[in-house]
Structures are given as C-alpha cells and as structure tokens.
Design a protein that fits this description.
The protein has 406 residues and is an alpha+beta fold. The chain has two domains: 35 residues; 343 residues. It has four helices and 15 strands. It has a 14-stranded antiparallel barrel. Strand 2 and strand 3 form a beta hairpin. It is elongated, with a radius of gyration of 27 Å. It starts with a helix and ends with a helix.
Length: 406
C-alpha cells in the first residue's frame, strides 16, 4: 500500500514538472514569433462608383420672360449626366489609452482621404465638357470610450474643365468642404448627432446645420435620418446581402470653360456650373468576401436643377451663398442607375459588438465622403448572425471571426 502511494506521489511530481517545462517552452516559442498585431480599426477602403441619367429635352420656361434663359436653353437643347467617382480612405494613425474602467479604451483615429470625380454634363447643343474634381483631405474620429464620438473632416479640392482634345484647359478653382459632428450612443438601438457642415451638394456654397438620428442596431435592420446627407432604411438579409431604400441629394459646383460663349461677358474664361437633384431608390449591397463587395442601385431623380454662376458677379459676397446667376433651370423627373465596387485591404483590431467603433465606421461611411455623398454600405460592420433556437450557429461565428481577422 505504501509502495503504491509512493508511486502515485512520484508520478504526480513528474507530471507537474513536465507541465511546467512545457508551458515555459511554449511561452518562449510564442514570444520568439514576434507576431505583428494590427494597429488600426479601419481598413484601407477603395470605392469605385458610376452614375448615369438619360438625356432630356430642356424645355423653355413659359412662366418667365427671360430672353437670356430662353436663348441658353435653346443652345443647350438636352441635358444628361455621366459620372465616375474614385474614393480612397486609409488610416494613418491610431492612438489608444485606457479610461480606467475594465475593458474600456479611448481611441483617436486619423485617416487620409482622397477623392477624384469625372463629371460629364451631356448637353446636346454644345461640345462635350469633361469636368474634374480632385482632392486630398484629413479626417479625425475621436472615441471617448463611453457613449460619444467626435467626427472632424476637412476635404479641400480643385475643380477643372478639361476637353477631350486637351486644348483650352481651364484653370483650377480651389474650394474646401468640411464637417464637424458630435455623435451620442445611449445604447445599441438609438443614436443622435449634431454638427455643422460646409457643403456644395446643393449647387451652392452653404454652411448647414447637421442633425441625425438612427433607430435600430447598425448590424441589424435600422432606419437612419442624417440631414442634409441622406435618409435610409437598411435591411440585412444575411451575412452577404443588404437591401436599402433611401433618398439623398446629389450635386456639386464645378469650374466650366466659357469656350462656347455661354456667358455673355466675352472676357470671362470660366464660370461656375452647378447641379443638384434628389435621388430616391432601392439599393442592393453584395458582400462577396472579406476584401470585395459591389452594389447596384436604381430609382428616380427628382428636383433636378442646373445653374450657371459668374464668380465676378458674386465677388462682393465672398463667404455668402451665391445669389446672382445668369442661368437657372429645373428639369423633369427621370430615372437613374448607380453601381459601385468596394475593395478593402489590411487587418484590423477586433471590434466585434463594439458600439462606438461601429458608430465611428458609420460616421466615416455616411458623413465623411465630402461632397460626393456616396456610401460603401458600411462594409466594415458585419451583419449580426441569424440565431438558431439554441444559440448562434458555429459557422456564423466563424464567419464573423474571419471577417475581422482579414
């Protein structure tokens, strides 16, 4: 009996030594790997967006006795839109520190943004103009670690009219869009935002108040109203498909060459061409894998307007909205088609079910695209998995783990 007890004691001792040595060796092996952990919560996202509307006849406005407007309408004849946008945002730096509460951290995100737009207003009575807008900006997103997030964006850009033959290239005109928003998350199902934005979306230089509310979780069915940016009902179908019904403004201000002599002052080489419209439609986002998504949208374009402004005629009000113009014309409702490709690169820190990081991603997506007002579909926020009667199934959890790891 004693011999048996001695044997058990020796085996127990040897087992303990073995386990200790194994653990020590495993720790050394782990340390020697020097794994490089992700630094940021945001991926590098490249968005390629195409938009088009069919040409329409420009009808004369019989209610106004404006011979200049009638003359220009006859010169222009028809109006349509072809637009291409390339948008990139990438994280530059992420700063984190603990708030002292268990598991709660503050973080500040600095992102670099770049935007390029090619707009072709298709007028039937004059040669084709190709209007370009390009800019590089900075974006700062501050997560308090509690319930609030600050969003600050500055997006300087230049516009230019470049004809296909490359001749008579207009000089560039410099502008800057900017936004500052305070976002508050009482819980996962409700959010409100206030701020101010300088925008050219409405075909003018406007300083507008920003107000937003959201009902519902960002990874589930939710309704979002972000004035003056968009209103949408977002419905995740599964991990790879999201449907949206939305309405939003689209437009901008562009430098337009006067080589067609549309502006009656012959010594003016350029003027401002502006457009705006309200798009209401249906959109489907397809998330094929961790690095590639695409979307298709179609609907109706209403409240269409084009306007020609002279910079010289508005020079006495350098910071106020333009109020003097030589052509202002509305267009009837028409259909539109919109499609886009979304590419994502890089690894991120884990943020699954992190309310404030989800909010920061949503701000970066819905508020932060400058004057293009296009959306990548919150592609970095994984849709909530469908639950079985017992619990979330293993494959859904695995999809979410893979989604954040790559």
């Amino acid at each position: 009996m004693k011999a048996r007890n001695h044997i058990v004691t020796v085996l127990t001792f040897l087992s303990a030594i073995f386990l200790f040595l194994t653990k020590t060796e495993a720790q050394k092996s782990f340390d020697s790997l020097k794994l490089k952990l992700p630094k940021h919560y945001f991926k590098t996202v490249i968005l390629i967006d195409g938009y088009s509307k069919p040409s329409q006849n420009i009808k004369l406005d019989q209610s106004m006795n404006d011979t200049t407007a009638d003359f220009l309408s006859k010169r222009l004849k028809t109006y349509g839109v072809k637009q291409f946008v390339l948008s990139v945002n990438t994280p530059l730096a992420t700063f984190e520190r603990s708030t002292g509460d268990s598991g709660v951290t503050k973080n500040t995100h600095i992102l670099l943004t770049a935007n390029y737009m090619s707009l072709q207003p298709v007028f039937g009575g004059i040669e084709q103009h190709s209007l370009y807008k390009a800019g590089i900006g900075l974006r700062v997103i501050i997560n308090s670690g509690k319930k609030s997030v600050w969003f600050i964006d500055a997006s300087p850009f230049v516009t230019r009219d470049v004809p296909k033959d490359g001749n008579d290239k207009s000089k560039g005109y410099y502008r800057m869009a900017s936004t500052i928003v305070y976002s508050y998350n009482p819980n996962d199902h409700f959010n409100w935002r206030v701020g101010i934005t300088k925008s050219f979306l409405w075909g003018n230089r406007l300083y507008l108040p920003f107000f937003g509310v959201r009902f519902g979780r960002l990874d589930k069915v939710n309704f979002s109203l972000q004035i003056p940016r968009c209103m949408s009902l977002n419905i995740p179908v599964n991990q790879k498909l999201v449907f949206s019904v939305y309405t939003k403004p689209q437009g901008g201000m562009f430098n337009f060459s006067n080589r067609d002599s549309l502006y009656y002052l012959g010594n003016a080489s350029t003027f401002n061409f502006t457009r705006y419209e309200i798009n209401t439609g249906f959109r489907a986002d397809v998330r094929l894998n961790n690095w590639f998504n695409f979307y298709v949208a179609l609907g109706l374009s209403t409240k269409n307007n084009i306007t020609f402004y002279s910079e010289k005629a508005n020079k006495d009000k350098p910071r106020l909205p333009y109020s003097t113009y030589f052509y202002d014309h509305g267009m009837p409702t028409t259909g539109y088609l919109n499609f886009g490709l979304v590419l994502k690169f890089g690894k991120t820190k884990s943020y699954f079910f992190n309310r404030n990081i989800y909010d920061a991603i949503d701000l970066n997506n819905t508020v932060g695209d400058g004057d293009n007002n296009i959306s990548n579909g919150n592609t970095q926020i994984p849709n909530a998995p469908k639950k079985t009667k017992k619990d979330v199934n293993l494959s859904s959890v695995q999809d979410l783990i893979d989604y954040n790891d790559f």
